[in-house]
Amino acid sequence: MESKKGRMWEDVVPHNNIDVDTLLREDTEEFMKEDEIGMNGVPVVFADVEEVEEPIKEAPINDGPMVAPFKDKKDARLHWENVELTFDKGGKTDKFTILNGVWGEAPQGEVSAIMGPSGSGKTSLLNVLSGRMTSSTAFVTVNAEQVTWNGRKLDVTALATRQTFAFVAQDDSLPITATPREAIMFSARLRLEKDKTEEELVEITNKMLDELHLDSCADTIVGGALLKGISGGERKRTSVGVELVCKPKLIFLDEPTSGLDSFNALELVQVLKDVALEESASVILTIHQPSSEIWELFDRLTLLNRGRVMYEGRRDKAMPKFAACGFPLPPQYNPADWVMNVAQTQKTEQLEQAGFFPINDFSTDGLAKMLRDSEISDGISDGFNFASVKQQDRVGMVAQTKFLFIREIQNFRRNVHPLRTRTGMTLLIALLAGVLFFDAAKADFSLLTSFVDLNTAFGALLLALMSTMFSTVLPVLVSFPEERPVFLREYSTGCYSVPAYFASRFVMEVLVTAFQMTIGTLIQYFMVGYQMNYGLFWLVTYVMAMTSTALGVMIGSSVADASVAIEMLPAVFMPQILFSGFFIPKENMPDWLSWLTYIYPLNYAVRLVLVYEFGDNCDSFICEELLRRVDANSEDTWWYWLILVAQFFFFRLLALFILHRKAQKFY
Ligand SMILES: Nc1ncnc2c1ncn2[C@@H]1O[C@H](COP(=O)(O)OP(=O)(O)OP(=O)(O)O)[C@@H](O)[C@H]1O
Fold it and tell me: Using one digit for the tens of pLDDT, what is the confidence trace for 379-399?
């Protein structure tokens, strides 16, 4: 396959970063061949198989400078030692080691593959190195203390660090209604320099689409479970494009070729190879069964077996090493298959005796001391910014909100199904309530003698508010957990801030909810014949709807799964209905429970509509009795408004906080 080296970036991205260092580096590269660059750029000579056994030993990291000049040097590398991961659920049988003293490195300008049998710990290692798995993950203890970049300790768990490197997860997290072109363009807009012109962004996007062979599906929506879109392979390549378009210096990919046919897989790895070379990026990927052509594209190999390092070093030295250990590559055999074959079929003890599982002896006191002495990076100092564009050079919050809002509108237009369902549900319930309670509120309340006569109108009002609550919260609960992975990926890669995300969603919710409430209230108001002002009726149901939506977003932010969120619904809403005063007056509630009537939004909405309907239009003692049952007072209406609105803000801010916390820990 013909390499596209030099096509993708050079044509589009101005080389304003080239400096004397870069020129010097090019000279040095000619002098120092790839194979000869060892730890910290110290030359390593691989003369024969014996010397190859532990290539990494020959250039210990502590031979290098204590603190390297943090320029963008090609001999910089991500280096990790003693990475441990244990799972402990408490019981004796529930404790096991997933990663055991794992070590390795990924130099800039190279593609480093992590291979191994299923369950050997490839994904776990990638997650630990990329800060996605930390000791805060349930039942897991992680030791990633000795991860360095260019010889200096790197705190991979810091959000600021993670926002500067790229991670392509195995599961795609793309907005379902965006096209590959829009998804890549969105990423470019928000993560490249803010002064990029529209033409430049279009050109960069087109190049990316071209490189990833996405031209034919560039304008088809990504799609999801219910919406047909591009194929799985195209989706995977789009996910890669979304990350690569920002030219990060450190790129993690979890099984990027899974789901791709051999041709597409090869092309994808070729693109990664080109990016590594052109952008001096460290590409680290896990892979299951690479073809021999893909194998040839790897520069380094970390072979894991039962959580330990079976082989670590240059890819082209792997077969000589296997031969030296008594496992020469059979003729006509794919080396990648052979590596997996040996790892899977031989017992660990036999492999150890044969010379595999090398001891990492560059992990000496020297490195430990150096790490103790060196400052821990939070990921934002110069040497650790793996993103080609710093956060402060990207677009600000207003622009972020604008682009997010444009995407929301696009999503709204392309995925009309949720709006149709919402409108249909609102119409159905409103008509049903209208027919059932037809003219129920038209009576002259002052002439009524029994409290029971008022109950029908009270029931109609309660139903109007309850249906408002359910019809607004359910769509949010269903959609939000699905959208959350997209938010977490984009947030943790520095696309936008949490307030920008919420602001864009908020505007859409304001409009959609207003539309929905207008339909529902118009039908019910005129069919039931309420006597309060229509504007007030609309406003109470609208604020109630917005508060319920905020509660739904808060629940949706807390749980990862839509089904869990829906299961929580009765626990959240049933008490509100029970404590509304309709089924049992407040005075008859047990004292230790009656305070609950003061915390639920529904109670305040009920108090408001009852005051407006019966307080202002009725001077009979029956109406007074009804207001007393729910503890409503016409002089306190401004309090009810205040609390209802405050609850809206409270749930919104809590959701914002939860999402922010979740994004800090994991994406
Ligand atoms: N959070 C966790 N809780 C419990 N077990 C875990 C956790 N993470 C990983 N494991 C276990 O650790 C082992 C390694 O998992 P990992 O996903 O890293 O393997 P892998 O090499 O990527 O496998 P595959 O190729 O099948 O994806 C597996 O046995 C897995 O079940």
Answer: 444 444 555 556 667 778 888
Phi-psi region of 631 (alpha: psi -120 to 50; beta: other; left: phi over 0): left
The predicted complex's ipTM stands at 0.95
- The most confident of 20-24, 62-66, 167-171, 558-562, by mean pLDDT: 167-171
Domain shared by 287 and 379, yes or no: yes
- Pick the residue whose CA is nearest to atom 27 on ligand 1: 118
Closest C-alpha among 109, 153, 147 to residue 129: 147
Distance (Å, rounded) from C-alpha 171 to C-alpha 181? 19
527 and 644 together in one domain: yes
Ligand 1 in contact with 87 (CB < 6 A)?
yes
* H or E element, residue 103: strand 95-107
User: Cα–Cα distances in Å, from 154 out to 58, 161, 380, 446, 644?
Assistant: 23, 8, 10, 75, 46
- Distance of CA 87 from the midpoint of ligand 1 (Å): 10
Closest protein CA for atom 30 of ligand 1? 119
In the block, which residue shows the tokens 């803010």?
Answer: 194
For residues 359 and 418, membership in a common domain is answered with no
CB 142 near ligand 1, within 6 Å = no
Cα separation, 52 vs 246, in Å, equals 36
Question: What residues contact residue 262 under an 8 Å CB cut-off, 6+ apart?
Answer: 291
Mutate to test the pocket of ligand 1, among 124, 132, 255, 284 (most ligand atoms within 8 A of CB): 124
Whole-angstrom distance, CA of residue 662 vs CA of residue 140: 17
Question: Predicted confidence band at 185 (pLDDT cuts at 50, 70, 90)?
Answer: very high
Which one of 376, 393, 410 terminates a domain? 393
- 111 closest CA partner among 322, 252, 255, 306: 252
Q: What is the pLDDT of residues 353-364, one digit of tens each?
A: 998 998 775 554
Q: What three-state secondary structure class fits 232? A: helix
* Ligand 1 in reach of 140 Cβ (< 6 A): yes
Q: How far is the CA of 123 from the centre of ligand 1 (A)?
A: 7
The C-alpha atoms of residue 454 and residue 615 are separated, in whole angstroms, by 12
Q: Is 666 in the pocket of ligand 1 (CB under 6 A)?
A: no
Number of other residues whose CB lies within 10 A of the CB of residue 196: 18
**Which atom of ligand 1 is nearest the CA belonging to 286?**
22
Flag whether 4 is in a domain: no
Rounded CA gap, 243 and 266, in Å?
18
pLDDT tens profile 465-504: 999 998 888 888 877 777 888 888 888 777 888 889 888 8
Q: Say if residue 293 is in the same domain as residue 384.
A: yes
326 lines ligand 1 (CB under 6 A): no
Residues 378 and 448 in one domain: no
Q: Which two tokens stand for residue 584?
A: 């049992």
Q: Which two tokens stand for residue 263?
A: 């041709």
Task: Provide the residue range defining the domain that includes 618.
Answer: 397-665
Tell me the average pLDDT across 206-216: 89
Lookup: tokens for 161: 């660090």
CATH number reported for the structural domain that contains residue 303 in this entry? 3.40.50.300
Instruction: Assess whether pLDDT exceeds 90 at residue 344.
Output: yes
Residue-wise pLDDT tens digits, 497-556:
888 988 888 888 899 999 999 999 999 999 999 999 999 999 999 999 999 999 888 888
